């Protein structure tokens, strides 16, 4: 089935009360997971485009994530580059849209984080600065970048039997090496967007305040993900202990800040 046929099934499955329609959409997803990975990637890419219905985009991003996570080795080196560029472009696209729902933000950020893990530490020197630079564009992009950073160490913070010992060691080694770049970035995001959220709220700009607050919230989630395993002195060195201590006075962020400090 091509992208348009699958789109038709997905939309019908969401709108229909029929269990059969929903099961058909689920069967298509399962069939694509084990089909030719290049064909599946092409179809998923088309479904994840920004002009598609929400259900189709979630389907497309979900399939791309599966292919990157579980069938990466079946793609060539050139195809790896293409998939990495695709993930980066989709991330930028979602950030620039600014109004995408939480599900799409999660899918896009998780896809790019999975590419980072699959490409390995050797590629981070190129990919990581590119994604971090997106945060300077605005709060929506900053939120997405923080979400990427939250997902990257997931295999360290959550037990994953699919990750072999040497792979886990390589991931942890790469993350530790990247901490001097990541932690100052997270501090900068907290400082910048908390201040901007307060300023926007005082000015009565509710939409801007919410956007900056979402960036703070995503950044705190990322900080929490690193707090599970990173050396505590590094958080103090880069100001994150002080920053979260300051956020204890904020009713919007005190629970997350407290959760981090308790560790």
UniProtKB/TrEMBL annotation:
- GO cellular component term of the entry, any: nucleus
Which SUPFAM superfamilies does the entry link to? ARM repeat
Please name the GO terms of the biological process aspect recorded for this protein, alphabetically: protein export from nucleus; RNA export from nucleus
Where in the numbering of this chain does the Exportin-1/Importin-beta-like domain appear?
103-261
Quote the InterPro entries the UniProt record gives: ARM-like, ARM-type_fold, Exportin-1/Importin-b-like, XPO1/5
Any GO molecular function: RNA binding
Q: Which domain of life is it from?
A: Eukaryota
* Organism, as annotated: Cymbomonas tetramitiformis
Q: What is this protein called?
A: Exportin-1/Importin-beta-like domain-containing protein
């Amino acid at each position: 089935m091509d992208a348009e046929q699958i789109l038709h099934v997905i939309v019908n499955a969401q709108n229909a009360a029929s269990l059969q329609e929903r099961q058909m959409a689920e069967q298509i997803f399962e069939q694509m997971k084990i089909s030719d990975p290049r064909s599946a990637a092409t179809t998923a890419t088309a479904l994840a485009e920004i002009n598609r219905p929400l259900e189709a985009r979630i389907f497309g991003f979900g399939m791309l994530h599966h292919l990157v996570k579980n069938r990466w080795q079946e793609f060539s080196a050139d195809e790896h580059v293409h998939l990495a560029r695709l993930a980066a472009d989709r991330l930028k696209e979602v950030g620039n849209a600014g109004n995408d729902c939480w599900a799409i933000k999660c899918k896009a950020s998780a896809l790019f984080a999975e590419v980072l893990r699959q490409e390995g530490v050797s590629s981070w020197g190129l990919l990581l600065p590119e994604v971090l630079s997106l945060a300077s564009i605005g709060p929506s992009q900053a939120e997405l970048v923080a979400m990427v950073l939250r997902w990257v160490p997931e295999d360290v913070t959550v037990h994953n039997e699919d990750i072999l010992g040497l792979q886990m060691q390589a991931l942890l080694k790469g993350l530790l090496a990247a901490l001097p770049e990541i932690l100052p970035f997270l501090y900068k995001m907290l400082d910048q967007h908390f201040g901007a959220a307060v300023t926007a709220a005082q000015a009565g700009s509710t939409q801007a305040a919410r956007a900056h607050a979402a960036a703070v919230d995503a950044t705190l989630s990322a900080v929490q993900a690193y707090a599970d395993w990173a050396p505590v002195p590094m958080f103090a060195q880069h100001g994150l202990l002080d920053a979260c201590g300051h956020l204890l006075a904020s009713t919007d962020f005190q629970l997350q800040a407290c959760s981090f400090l308790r560790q």
